[in-house]
Design brief:
The protein is an alpha+beta fold. 45% of the residues lie in helices and 18% in strands. It contains 17 helices and twelve strands. The strands form two sheets. Strands 1-2-6-3-5-4 form a six-stranded mixed sheet, sandwiched between helices. A hairpin with a 5-residue loop joins β1 and β2. The longest helix has 19 residues. The protein is globular, with a radius of gyration of 24 Å. It starts with 23 loop residues before the first strand and ends with a strand. This is Zn-dependent peptidase. Pfam families: Peptidase_M16 (PF00675), Peptidase_M16_C (PF05193). InterPro entries: Metalloenz_LuxS/M16, MPP/UQCRC_Complex, Pept_M16_N, Peptidase_M16_C.
Length: 447
Amino acid sequence: MTVPEMVTTLPALGPTTKLQLPREAEATLPNGLTVIAIRRPSVPLAEVRLRIPFGRAHPARAAMLAQTLLSGTDTMSSVEIAAELQTVGGGLSAGVDPDRLMLAGNGLVGGLERILELLGEVLTAARYPAEEVATERARLVDHIQVAQSQPQHVARTALLKRIYGRHPYANQLPEPEQVRAIRPAQLRALHSERVRPAGATLVLVGDITPAKAIDTAEQILGGWAIGGDSPAAKWAVPPVPPLAPGALMVVDRPDSVQSSLRMALPAVPRTHPDHAALQIANLIFGGYFSSRWVENIREDKGYTYGPHSAIEHLVAGSSLTVAADVATEVTGPAMLETLYELGRIASLPPAEDELEQARQYALGSLRLGVATQAGLAGLATTYAGSGLRLNHLAEHSARLAAVTADEVAAAAATYLAPARAVTVVLGDASRIEAPLAALTPIEKAQP
């Protein structure tokens, strides 16, 4: 007996509706701190994000400062800070990258005032106790050493050096010996110099009244010390150098069973007229599961599990990165298919169904990204770092909805042509050099 094949037809995508932005308020305090408060009453919680510009900071000292910022103040230990946060169902964490120091946390909306008080305590009276610094220093060294043993990190580091050269963005993780040399006095000096309100942005999101939340923030953080005369000019990261395509760089990892393929292509900032078209072009190429490149080297040929491409935005410049990890024996074929798909997207306009599928994915991702309080707080903080506000979200959504196939084709031809790529491959050079050299000129990284 033959069982009839069941075919399910997916319903057509509905029309794109106008994005509704939440209610917000903004004020810049006399000490230079900008406070943005956004009402999102879905749950009785509040999200807190504090972004402090941190460009050009010494990488090891910046990393250690972020590790130990919450380790104690003049009046409270790290345990006491954590216990106080727990009383309002909250928590705080700190992190740093080449652009900013970020303090992030959340808690019950009724505890927002207490969270801000504890945040203010840390900002104005962090002590960096020697014992805590020693513990976190050892932990950070272990983390760096583990990262340096991972091929993904080694490949990324090699690519960053090719992209940025001597620019501060080239070194995004300090060396272990640099961290071992850090002492508490250096962290206190860095804190005094750089943890300042001028140019910083505090974002508050939750079941709040925006104007009242700003008043609360001013009462608690208005006394945070005023910074220098011109911190933005003094610490601004210089523009990134233009990408300089050249020979494919092979980074030798003897006896490796996998090769890590990494590429960088030019991209534009969020405010550029080409940004929406480039975002769609990237999605069609390799930016989501249904993209051409993923279908090719994952679904069709089985060369890799998770190839992906993405536009990365930093304050001083943007780039489009391409990443895949493949078995050593298919390194050449995987690179061939990658170059083929880049050439195809750069030379042929997308089909209408491809364009529409990528458009709906991009629009849906935007909406999902701000569907939660945490997502909304994260996006608002990211935008603030580029001088943007949430109205840019609506503007970008409208551009995505209106972008045409011709505009996508033009953006792909301008930014995704394989001749514009900077390429690094980490793997067993004795096995991958010959197949790669058959495709493109190569050079071997110096040890």
